[in-house]
From TrEMBL:
<dbReference type="Pfam" id="PF13091">
    <property type="entry name" value="PLDc_2"/>
</dbReference>
<dbReference type="InterPro" id="IPR025202">
    <property type="entry name" value="PLD-like_dom"/>
</dbReference>
<dbReference type="GO" id="GO:0016042">
    <property type="term" value="P:lipid catabolic process"/>
</dbReference>
<dbReference type="GO" id="GO:0016891">
    <property type="term" value="F:RNA endonuclease activity producing 5'-phosphomonoesters, hydrolytic mechanism"/>
</dbReference>
<dbReference type="InterPro" id="IPR001736">
    <property type="entry name" value="PLipase_D/transphosphatidylase"/>
</dbReference>
<keyword id="KW-0443">Lipid metabolism</keyword>
<feature type="domain" description="PLD phosphodiesterase">
    <location>
        <begin position="137"/>
        <end position="164"/>
    </location>
</feature>
<keyword id="KW-0442">Lipid degradation</keyword>
<dbReference type="GO" id="GO:0004630">
    <property type="term" value="F:phospholipase D activity"/>
</dbReference>
<dbReference type="InterPro" id="IPR051406">
    <property type="entry name" value="PLD_domain"/>
</dbReference>
<protein>
    <recommendedName>
        <fullName>phospholipase D</fullName>
        <ecNumber>3.1.4.4</ecNumber>
    </recommendedName>
</protein>
<keyword id="KW-0378">Hydrolase</keyword>
<dbReference type="GO" id="GO:0006793">
    <property type="term" value="P:phosphorus metabolic process"/>
</dbReference>
<comment type="similarity">
    <text>Belongs to the phospholipase D family.</text>
</comment>
Length: 483
């Protein structure tokens, strides 16, 4: 066996990746979609509308959000609590570690939100509680919606964070009165019977220490709205999966096209009905377009994207998408869940609403524009050069300074890790860094590493380290030697 190989940037990788879309059109803001409220470049109509809803609430304001860290939204809620007689209720997410979002696997939060201080959410919750806001939290919550005075409901894909309200691609819509009342019923059921954390109190001798009362959920199916009562759809653990069923209905009734948007595409093997519906769409010559965030750094997302690509879907992406929805030529739905077989469609707490005709038409226009203006297109069997070119632009967009770009030209691998040699030829590799300790990461396997000028020496294999600062390993010509 040859223990030394050289690979160049023209070598092709195994699997599929999001690469530069050479047919991308110039970006234009979608400010003309009057029934949709958006976050996108040069468009913050979604945030303005949320602030207006908070301001307009007279007697009662109900907010359901996975996380609340945007300062302007937080201050609007706090000022409402301090200066009015409006009763404010907040449903949010906490777990046994209070606010350790790294343990949350559903949305994983966007990388922009993880970069912020997620403890700020817990601080905000405690401050709101101190000023009379009724706070409860659940372990399964990922839904995002606001209700003013029971009859003014608004569902959005956005977390109440600055990234979601300033530059992530997000969307939101109003519900009609009937749908709003059912959403209000759903909020009350989860707040009263589905919350895991129901009481916050400070120690009298140390107000900085907050005690939280934890209880088991006692919610029952009969407490929840029925899907034949309105266009509201939702997921609540195994008690209701009407949101997932509606996605399947949109797929199964499509005649010409389907548009799907999501942040991530993961665990699709746990959604056999979804995959079967996609297959049937393709067999009926229905064109299926998927728009998502182009996350080449998430192998689970690439795996899901590859499954849809192999079935015949066309996939596009951008740097910031967090919007979610589905539509065909006759019906559409906006929702808060991702295309995720583990969290959101068959478990957890998510919401969605079937769109009215004007909303559906605007949602279709939005998806057409998102795809025309997509930075990325998913392709199979690409070369390292195309991938590196894509990453160069990604790093410029995100202001990432990669200290390892194109410098290192030789990797030394211990004989016992001989398989790493083939993996480097087939997959994206990364260099991680924690306080000066380097790691080499490839195909979901991590190794200690020593970097000396243009040489990387692979050390012992280690457990995967989540959320380590890592940079793509780029090269012009790479020599790999097994010692």
């Amino acid at each position: 066996m040859d223990n030394t190989i050289s690979i160049e940037r023209e070598f092709r990788l195994r699997g599929g990746f999001f690469v530069k879309n050479n047919e991308v059109e110039k970006y234009e803001v979608s400010s003309d979609l009057s029934s949709l409220f958006l976050t996108q470049k040069n468009n913050n109509s979604l945030k303005k509308e949320l602030l207006e809803i908070i301001e307009s609430a007279d007697k009662v304001l109900k907010i359901c959000s996975f996380i609340i860290t945007d300062i302007e939204l937080f201050e609007a809620i706090l000022n409402k609590a301090k200066n009015t007689n409006c009763n404010i209720f907040v449903l949010t997410y906490l777990n046994e570690n209070k606010i350790n979002f790294i343990d949350f696997k559903g949305d994983d939060l966007t990388e922009e939100e993880l970069e912020n201080q997620t403890n700020l959410h817990f601080d905000h919750i405690c401050e709101l509680y101190k000023y009379g806001v009724f706070i409860r939290a659940a372990k399964n919550l990922h839904a995002k919606f606001v209700i003013a005075d029971r009859q003014k409901g608004f569902i959005t894909s956005a977390n109440l964070t600055s990234p979601s309200l300033l530059f992530n691609t997000e969307s939101g819509v109003y519900l009609n009165i009937q749908e709003s009342l059912k959403l209000d019923q759903l909020f009350d059921a989860v707040y009263q019977k589905g919350s895991n954390y129901i009481e916050f109190s400070s120690l009298s001798n140390n107000p900085d220490v907050v005690l939280i009362t934890e209880v088991e959920s006692t919610i029952k199916k009969e407490y929840l709205p029925q899907d034949n009562e309105s266009n509201l759809r939702f997921t609540y653990n195994d008690l209701d999966n009407s949101l997932y069923k509606q996605i399947l209905l949109v797929l199964n009734t499509a005649n010409r096209y389907v548009y799907l948007s999501t942040y991530s595409i993961v665990q699709l093997h746990k959604l056999p009905e979804f995959l079967e519906a996609i297959k049937k769409c393709i067999n009926r010559n229905v064109k299926v377009f998927v728009f998502c965030r182009g996350m080449n750094y998430r192998s689970d997302h690439l795996e899901g994207a590859k499954i849809l690509y192999d079935l015949g879907c066309k996939l596009y992406g951008d740097y910031y998408n967090h919007s979610k929805g589905v539509l065909n030529e006759s019906m559409g739905m906006i929702f808060t869940a991702n295309l995720d077989g583990q969290y959101g469609l068959t478990s957890g707490f998510e919401v969605g609403v079937i769109l009215e005709e004007d909303q559906k038409n605007d949602f279709k226009l939005l998806h057409e524009r998102l795809i025309k203006q997509a930075i990325y297109q998913f392709k199979n069997s690409i070369c390292f050069y195309d991938l590196f070119q894509t990453y160069d632009e990604y790093e410029r967009e995100k202001s990432i300074k990669n200290p390892f770009g194109y410098d290192h030209v030789e990797i030394l691998i211990p004989k016992k890790y001989n398989s790493l040699k083939e993996n480097i030829c087939d997959y994206i590799s990364y260099i991680g860094n924690i306080h000066g300790q380097y790691f080499f990461i490839c195909n979901n396997e991590s190794y200690n590493a020593i970097i000396d000028e243009n040489k990387i020496t692979i050390g012992e294999k280690i457990s995967t380290i989540n959320y380590v600062e890592k940079f793509i390993f780029k090269f012009k010509v790479l020599k790999i030697s097994v010692l």
